[in-house]
Amino acid sequence: MVSVYISVFAILGAFARYGQSVVVQNMLGDTFPFATLSINVLGSFLMGFLFFETLERINVSPELRTGILTGGLGTYTTFSTFSIEALHLFELGHLILAALYIGASVVLSIAAAFFGAYLSRHRQFTDS
């Protein structure tokens, strides 16, 4: 069953990634890899949040959890794209932009994962 969950969520993650790429590139252009940066930061936040939500708060099967985190978010975020875009900036001679992109991707993605984990662990539930 885990393979089914991974497959289904991988399809959803791929479509989400493509959709966000189109929207961000239409809004901000493609001279800087804003689309991949935004995907990696949002994906890191979601990984930090959902990892702990599905481990500590929400009772889901290990198979579904693996499908969501590995299939969905694993497909949605890709460091392989990040790597090739950084290489491309270096090859074009845009050393400062490449360094900015690498630094922003790493720092913002780790900060987003931390914030997601913090939000999951520290939010208060109210009975309505």
Automatic annotation (TrEMBL):
It is found in: Cell membrane. Its main location: membrane. It is a multi-pass membrane protein. Coiled coil: none annotated. GO terms for molecular function: fluoride channel activity; metal ion binding. The keyword Disulfide bond does not apply. The chain crosses the membrane at residues 32-52, 64-84, 96-119. Na(+) is not transported, but it plays an essential structural role and its presence is essential for fluoride channel function. One of its GO terms (cellular component) is plasma membrane. Pfam families: CRCB (PF02537). HAMAP family: FluC (MF_00454). Fluoride-specific ion channel. Important for reducing fluoride concentration in the cell, thus reducing its toxicity. This is Fluoride-specific ion channel FluC. It comes from Thiomonas delicata. The lineage of its organism: Bacteria, Pseudomonadati, Pseudomonadota, Betaproteobacteria, Burkholderiales.
